Amino acid sequence: MSAVLAEADVQTAGANAAASGTAIVLFGTGVVGGALLKLLNTPAAASLRLVGAANSRRQQTSAEQLADRALREKLKSHGDPRDDATLLRALDTSGAAVKVIIDATANANLAARHADWLARGYHVVTANKALAGGELPGWRALQAAVAQGGRYGDAATVGAGLPVLSTLRRLRACGDALLTLEGVFSGSLSYLFNQYDGSQPFSGLLREARKLGYTEPDPRSDLSGEDVARKLLIIARNAGFALGTDEVEVESLVPEALRSVDTDSFLARLEELDEPLARRHAEAKARGGVLRFLARLNQRGKARVGLVEVPATHPAARLYGTDNQFALTTTRYHSQPLVIQGPGAGPEVTAQALLGDVLALT
Ligand SMILES: NC(=O)C1=CN([C@@H]2O[C@H](COP(=O)(O)OP(=O)(O)OC[C@H]3O[C@@H](n4cnc5c(N)ncnc54)[C@H](O)[C@@H]3O)[C@@H](O)[C@H]2O)C=CC1
Ligand SMILES: N[C@@H](CC=O)C(=O)O
Q1: Any one Gene Ontology biological process term (predicted)?
Q2: CA of 158 to the centre of ligand 1 (A)
């Protein structure tokens, strides 16, 4: 069985899981983790056993509490103090053949533990991009752990589960190679720029995107281009380009004055985004163009993410909602790129990507 998870594996999952027993611990019960908890209560997840769940401050390992449909809400005020060791012990003592840690946080310290968890025999399924899309040594440690047999479910890290990484791996397994990559890799920025026409403030749309669960916990991770850069790095690295974080040119949409304030202050000052973006929008419109936040990797490994004015005929100008678009030019898809497109953010699709990766392990 390969070390990374293929979509096809999911099909036989339910029956196998019942036979082998799969125990899971969930880190993060926010927007994505909360949606996953709902999915765990559906027949699709009947073979999985939740033995621990945690938010940043509290955790639960009692079977009775974990079975409570209000678990996410209750964890906000009730539960044991956070302690990773107790959660891992719940996996160890579960008697399950397959032990899975699900990371539905954006916490870099937690992501830094993925390789260690894999080395200790746990499988890891993650929506958290901080390791694979972070500093190169972290990516290399992850690859080393995967080479030793650890299995890493990463579908949710790119395109919120769109079949991007699995397609890329399949192409590579056939000897194909990625030449260039271009597209819209952010669901929230897609949602924002697909709708923004200058008639309403950008900050209002951003509040909406946040309410719908499309943005990162701190929306500056989206607006700064950091989240898109991480996705670009994850794809590029999976395609064999060992790019460092400093090799991606990143354009930030966050005004200088808002970059180092705390999250609450930033959220209280969103209107400061409006004027510069209204100006850029008006300039693009006057030339018949639209603004899109694009990621690009060329054949020499040069990578850039940022706001680009594109003509109305550009493929990225014809996206809707949270659509992501990944155009892969490869040695075999060279006259026309292979394009993967669809909703690229949102709790339900992302939680489904996590569940699919867990089921594929069994
Ligand atoms: N929202 C979306 O559409 C998508 C999100 N993702 C990723 O999913 C992850 C979670 O995103 P959201 O659910 O939107 O964020 P959120 O802010 O709603 O939830 C984060 C959760 O992580 C918990 N947490 C933080 N540190 C923790 C720790 N050390 N131990 C246990 N729990 C901890 C928080 O208490 C919270 O429950 C992020 O990495 C994000 O990039 C990936 C694809 C799509
Ligand atoms: N905040 C992210 C969520 C998915 O990774 C985005 O907007 O794409």
Answers
A1: homoserine biosynthetic process
A2: 14
Task: Name the CATH code of domain 166-343 (choices 3.40.630.30, 3.10.180.10, 3.40.470.10, 3.30.360.10).
Answer: 3.30.360.10
What is the rounded distance in angstroms from the CA atom of residue 273 to the CA atom of residue 256?
Answer: 11
The helix, strand and coil proportions of the chain, stated in percent and rounded to the nearest 5, come to 45, 20, 35
Q: Is 29 annotated as a binding residue?
A: yes
Residue pointed to by tokens 């390969």: 2
Q: Confirm whether the ipTM is greater than 0.90.
A: yes
Sequence-separated (6 or more) residues with CB below 8 Å from residue 271: 201, 203
Distance from CA of residue 146 to its chain's centroid? 19
Our answer on whether the CB atom of 107 is closer than 6 Å to any ligand 1 atom is: yes
Number of CB atoms found within 10 A of residue 12's CB: 12
360 C-alpha to ligand 1 centroid (Å): 22
pLDDT level of residue 5 (50, 70, 90 thresholds)? low
| CB 187 less than 6 A from any atom of ligand 2 | yes
pTM of the model: 0.94
Distance from C-alpha of 243 to C-alpha of 231, rounded to nearest angstrom: 12
What is the atom index within ligand 2 of the atom nearest the CA of 222? Answer: 1
Q: Cα of 53 to ligand 1 centre, how many Å?
A: 13
Contact 4, 146 (CB under 8 A): yes
What residue segments make up the domains of the chain, in order of their start? 7-162+348-359, 166-343
Q: Is 32 known as a binding-site position?
A: yes
Q: Which atom of ligand 2 is nearest to the CA of 324?
A: 8
pLDDT band, residue 18 (cuts 50/70/90) = very low
Report, as an integer, the average pLDDT of 209-221: 97
- Strand pairing category for 178-184 and 248-250: unpaired
Q: Which atom of ligand 2 is nearest to the CA of 156?
A: 5
* Ligand 2 pocket: which of 165, 215, 350 to mutate (most atoms within 8 A of CB): 215
What topology does CATH give the domain 7-162+348-359?
Answer: Rossmann fold (3.40.50)
